[in-house]
Amino acid sequence: METYDLVVIGSGAGLNVLNVGLQMGIKCALVEDTKLGATCLTRGCIPSKVLVHPADLIREAQHAIKVGIHFNVQRIDWDLISKRMWSQIDESKQIEEGLSHVPNLTLYKGVGEFTGEYEMRVNSIDGKEIFGTFKGDRFVIASGARSFIPKIEGLEDVGYITNENFFGEKFPSQPWKSLIIIGGGVIAAEFAHIFSAMGTEVSIIEMLPRLVTTEEPEISQFLEQNFKKYMKVYVNHKAIKAKLKKNTKIVIARNMETGQEVEITAEEILVATGRRSNADLLKVENTGVEINEKGWIKTNMYLETNKKNIWCIGDANGLFQFRHKANYESEICTNNIFGPEDQKRSVDYSAVPWAIFTYPQIGHAGMTQAEAIEKGHEIYIAVKNYSTVAKGFAMGFKTGEEDDGFVKLIVDKSYRILGAHVIGSNAALLVQPFVYLMNSGFTCVLPEFTEETDIPKISRACPEGGSFMPIYHSMVIHPSLNEVTGWAIGNLEPINIKMEHHEHQHNHDH
User: Fold this and answer.
1) Backbone dihedral region of 432: left (phi > 0), alpha (psi from -120 to 50 degrees) or beta?
2) What single DSSP character describes residue 185?
């Protein structure tokens, strides 16, 4: 039986680890059951942004009326939009072509499953053929995640799309006339924006009381009220049944509070109710790797599983499912696999950023207010609206109007930034500088302590490390939207700060 020095399962961020192994000249195997490049390149963040940008332009053109400019969207060239999107997805072919000529690498295109300790079999997608059985000295599980499909009566018979088959055989030749989206998270919000801007009648069904529950409640509410201008939003509604009537798809949703049922009809149904682990497909129980109650693979701070020489990165460990987080983990994992044992690096998720490319756009870094309080922090919050700065007014934002975006900062009592949240124009750009600030504690390590890499960020920070003081002491370009975030600190309000009382003792001895 063939034995490899390194086996990587998944061709997303897993390729970063694999490339280092190949550069070192060790014998490697790569297992992938779909297109190379994995979710982000072939069925996620990259192709979806190619669709989001035209949708943004349509919404911006409509917003321009507020500043006295009237645009008409004459024609949407869906064929060109689609062609540009497929050009990105098709990069997977170049990746596969490149890897097929690499010495020391065997590529297994199929579904890998563990058959024993450090032993794996690769089957065809339908499970009818075996493409190979081998052993590995070290495994990196970067197997990603797949769409979670809730149990809805009749759904399988009616048919539906997910982000996987949307960027595949179910991609529409033209935008649908109407679309039901089941779910209210990141994927649902982005698809709702894309298709409502393209003229599709969109209905969102979300069983929780609000959309995008990873965000601040005020941001969820702001998104919902803006969505309602362009589509129907059913929060607190659970999809319970699907049926066909002629060529129309019908979803019956039940109000979670009143029990009242509503029928929603559309040409197509998109299911975006979250992600589930692929650990079950890998049969990780056969090698002894532990999973948690939701099926995600458990990892420690070094990205090690409970099984020696098996690591797990990216969506597969269920933590912060974003490509940039997976890339970050791949660097740490590479160091921990190939570096000296006494120089292992640990992960730090205290300043994970992300954006939701919907309309209005959402940017997120670090903790929410609720998370900060739950973790025992005493905090201030600061909120500032776009309309309160000159550039915001210039862009057509007015106080009290439903599209007047805002920033919300969460700051602890030592002025350390714990979280930054933005909804509105350029939110992803506005939130990013806070990530740099939150990580700035790293730069304050004294040279003689540099080898101690596992001291938490705050412990190695200089007094101003990670605080907002650099913003406070900086000039902010005027007039620019940066003033919304830069000047927000002027609006700090205590939330649960305990005031310390000092007793003054007067010394009368002279």
Assistant:
1) alpha
2) S
* H or E stretch at 366: strand 362-366
| Peptide bond between residue 479 and the one before it cis (omega within 30 degrees of 0) | yes
Which of 279, 273, 201 lies closest to 239, judged by CA?
273
Copy the structure tokens of residue 217. 């409640």
Rounded Cα–Cα distance for residues 70 and 306 (Å): 61
DSSP state of 387: G
Which CATH number applies to 353-494?
Answer: 3.30.390.30
Per-chain mean pLDDT for the chain: 91
Tell me which DSSP letter residue 285 carries.
Answer: G
Identify whether the C-beta of residue 131 lies closer than 8 Å to the C-beta of residue 124: yes
What mean pLDDT is predicted for residues 351-358? 96
Residue 460: CB partners within 8 Å, gap ≥ 6?
Answer: 441, 442, 444, 445, 449, 452
3-state secondary structure of 86: helix
Q: Mean pLDDT, to the nearest integer, of 2-9? A: 96
Residue recorded with tokens 């003054």: 504
CATH 2.40.50.140 describes domain 2-147+276-343: no
Write out pLDDT tens, residues 27-45: 999 999 888 887 777 888 8
Question: In the chain, where does the domain assigned CATH 3.50.50.60 lie?
Answer: 2-147+276-343, 155-273
Rounded distance between C-alpha atoms, residue 246 and residue 249, angstroms: 8
